[in-house]
């Protein structure tokens, strides 16, 4: 299970309430959080990054602006690393790509906790159906749901690392020949 990471500030600051902040904890964003923030800050990468840092750390915009630049750079780098990592990069031990373990378990639509899922390659009929969707996002959600059995709302609850892992494998399914998937001996 993923444990939140911590950065000890070299230059402690104060919270909006005047309390000292000496440590900042990082939590992975969910795919849904990131999608919402991306839509809100479409044309401003700096604001998007700061919104992602705020969502990951719980720091307000004012608290982020009170950080000294070296501490901010450390936090920014760690948040970006979490946002871009795949679950297999963060999970210790062997990773099963056919039945991946979730870095951060989610609650299913039925209320059960999901700690892993079964990933199956799409059929040609499924990829034909995927191509009928109007835009890239709809195609991505359709193929992700078809290959995992997750609903759109369950997909939105996946951590970005779990989402990145899923997308990496789906790209393999859509682009690689069968020989790519044979076990290596």
From TrEMBL:
Pfam families xrefs: Phage_TAC_7
InterPro entries cross-referenced by the UniProt entry: Phage_tail_E/E
Name under which the protein is recorded: Tail assembly chaperone E/41/14-like protein
Organism (species): Marinomonas aquiplantarum
